[in-house]
Specification:
The complex is a heterotrimer of chains A (279), B (474) and C (315). Chain B is an alpha+beta fold. Chain B contains 13 helices and 20 strands. In chain B, 47% of the residues are buried. Chain C has 315 residues and is mainly α. Helix content of chain C is 75%, strand content 0%. The chains are: A alpha+beta (279), B alpha+beta (474), C mainly alpha (315). Chains A and B meet through strand 2, strand 4 and strand 5 of A and strand 6 and helix 9 of B.
Amino acid sequence: MRLAIEHATTYRFSGPIRQGQQRLRLTPVSSAGQSVIAWDIACEGAQIEVGYDDEYTNRVTLVGLTPGTPAVTIRAHGVVETRDESGVTGRHAGYLPLWHFSRDTALTARGTKVAALVGGLENGAARDPLATLHTLTERVRAAVVYAQGHTDVATTAEAALTAGRGVCQDQAHVFIAGARALGIPARYVSGYMLIDGREQQDAGHGWAEGFVDGLGWIGFDVANAICPDDRYVRVACGRDYRDAAPVKSMTYVLPAPTGSAPVGDTLVTTLVVQRLTPA
Amino acid sequence: MTETAYDEMLAPDGTVRPAYDGYRQWLDAQPPGLLKRKGIEAEAFFRRTGITFNVYGAADAEERLIPFDPVPRIITASQWRKLSRGIEQRVRALNAFLHDLYHRQEIVRAGRLPARLLQGNLAYLPQMAGFTPPGGVYTHIVGIDLVRTGEDDFMVLEDNARTPSGVSYMLENRETMMAMFPELFTRVRVREVSDYPRRLARSLAACAPAAFTGDKPTVAVLTPGIYNSAYFEHAFLADQMGAELVEGSDLKVQGGRVAMRTTQGWQPVDVIYRRVDDDYLDPLSFNADSVLGVAGIMDVYRAGGITIANAPGTGISDDKAIYSFMPEIVEFYTGEKPILPNVPTWRCSEADALAYVLDNLADLVVKEVHGSGGYGMLIGPTSSKKEIAAFSAKLRADPANYIAQPTLSLSTVPIFTRAGLAPRHVDLRPFVLVSPQGIDITPGGLTRVALKKGSLVVNSSQGGGTKDSWVLDD
Amino acid sequence: MLGRSANGTFWLFRYLERAENTARLIEAGFRMALTRDSGAASEEWRSVLITLGLHHAYAARHGEDVTGAQVFNFVLRDRDNPASVLAMIETARTNARAVRTGITREVWEAVNESWMKLREILARPVAETRLRDVLDAVRRQAIQVRGAMEGTMLRNENYYFANIGTFAERADNTARILDVKYYVLLPSLAAVGTSLDNVQWENVLRSVAGERAYRWLNAGQMDPRGIASFLILDERFPRSLAFCYAQLLSNLSLLAREYGFETEAHAIQRAGHERLAGLTIEAIFEQGLHQFIGDFLACNHQLAQQIQRDYRFVE
């Protein structure tokens, strides 16, 4: 399937920027289920400083914000040819050992709620990890019901379980924490997804991958209760959302002119994912 | 302990060992009271120069002065040759080891190093995985702490691959000696150390990143600032190298490079000799609250725009649990037996070793695996029963956090005391420079000496002093 | 050279200069107060505080009670006064440490020794009997640093920024004294020949260490016009505005030559310098002495600001 993606993110700051950088993980690379046909990042209010591959083999772009700018817009767009690999991303690439993906992070730290969630799955995890991960998907889906507005980017897996509600990022974190609790390496994936009948979306998508010997990394999208197929485009991965976040910012803002009402930073995202039909 | 220790100047029968022949002849020909007079002079001299280096605040000005002893510590040319070979072998292995840790970890796959030593180890930086620093150099500057127990028995006590300090004392001690006893240096041929800053500058320049174009790389020393306890050394080295001494606030990412704010605009820096810890280096990658580093420097680094010396993540090799595997590490990467042995070490993570250590705490030195500077350790022979019991509880609670070593009978070298020359225990930290052009060891290093009779603790924070360290010319 | 180092060097020398000038001002105030009744003496000390811009801080600390020992202790060493001479020397030393690689060992040691010595002699309250010794020490330390600087520093950007700091501060200082004491020099109020005026005039000269030079040049004749002319326009006197601006011009030009470019600061400085060079003392009195000094202070401040911007002292 050929997908056209246009993803624009606009940050409006509380005052003119004195100095700032944004680390972007907004470039998909060709892999088992996808071939990148064309991709580009364009900025307003910022300039591209460097590009490189990080420790997860994600393509990273560092941009410097233009001093004095009140806002920055990052536009990532391109075309990706996808194939349905039933969620299998394949062998472990890069130089980070697998154990790295078995260790807790702040967002995926395991507590009593995660332990309860995976209760009884321990034997199955050793015998048939693939089936166990599917069971885990169902349990997470039931324990953290998809609902917007109850969590934010800093919500931990335990907190999402306590809330019982959350978005795809929370469900992925809970899945990752659960898999690790069962001794299965797991990681977070950020990317895009074609939604039938809905070209305009509010935000990018996030899901999880677990590592199964013999198969390699396999994706699990808890929110949609499936393994990613040719509607999915992988952009970046890491131990949790923070490693794979599309944009990580460090900004220093000049004080707003006196007399003006204080405002916080605001963020507006527009995302269009379309299927291109062969001409 | 002192009675049985190897004295580097005097053999047990009272004869002077060959290394000190020239020095003793000179000393014996001096009028009585010279050392005493020079001792007083030295203190005034060192205090005056020391003042320029060590006074940080009003109150602690005095304490900051590290005592200097005017009797040199002398190593013969042939002893040094052997030491150099051993140090070079070890440093070569350290760099190969670091490269491997941040790539395929063959040593772990080969079963020669347990993965658990890396797992959860905060000094292992995932951000370095899959990246090779410019020139393949991880440890541009290394300090190897050596102890001696006999004529030919030198052992490595610690590797300092993170940010070894103290080289300014090595240089100042020599300056002080030459100013006090100029004629001594015409009698005894001692190898030069004063060109260390030039060698350091050359070595760093040889590690310029891919993005460097031109004929002379720009080197800068990154300091946390004037309130850092080693600020003097940072300023001293920058001054001696003719490099800029920069703080995080002087730097930013611009034009794909790390640039410094000069009076004529932003100028790219090619090599940063940083004296800021990994955690503070880049708020985008590590501690987000840090104002001592540069946001985005890790991005520029991975993109080939700057050299960071030492490379982030080298601190993993300073870990004492990893240290205990250094003989295996040296052999794995060089294919040779280690020339310099380790101090025998029990890993408390291993049940047999732990049982032995718990039974013999009163005779052992126990250290935290991530610790440094003599903190968090137990010195069995000088500890009370109560201290040992308390430590034993800590050890049982988290055995993997500790290693233990025998209480070594460190060699002694005389120091000048009111009662004349008296032996005191010493160690030695040679400084090693690594670049693609090779490994360069400055002859000598920093000798630290325990000033208290019988004491084995040489750390300056705990009553240690320093000596000029001589390597004799052939 | 780093912008931060240029900033550190600039302020190192500004503070040293300011500390020295403050000592002179106290010395002149002290001498004046000795010859007056207590009410007039208070007035004299108050004008010292105003010249230093410390009158509000002093009032906050001590209220309306203005007495000599209280004033000079406040100015010299009060921990609650961030602009005390001791605080200035401390700030100077902190700057010197931060620019340690840009100054010579001799300059650093001179600054460090100044700090150690002054810290010691200002550790306890200064009695009137000890004041002269203390003030002498302050002046001597400043001279030692300048000697070390002249004798050992390379004539390059570091040296130019040191001089620019020194002379921007000195011009400001002389102008401030004139700003507070201008009425003493106004011809309309000059009651010719009264001893009081002679004392006032001499005091103005003394506060810039110019009394002997002026007498020597003018065969002992004191007149307000001559004094104003001496302090503003005489390029031979190292604390006159004209001298300071000639030095600023020279150091800024050398800096431009080293860097190969001029900045906006050069335009401001040149305009200021030309204004001074083209003026006569008659023209100054005609436009109004107070007005002239006010304009000069504003221009000097603007120049310092522009230098800090042009050479990226801070981001």
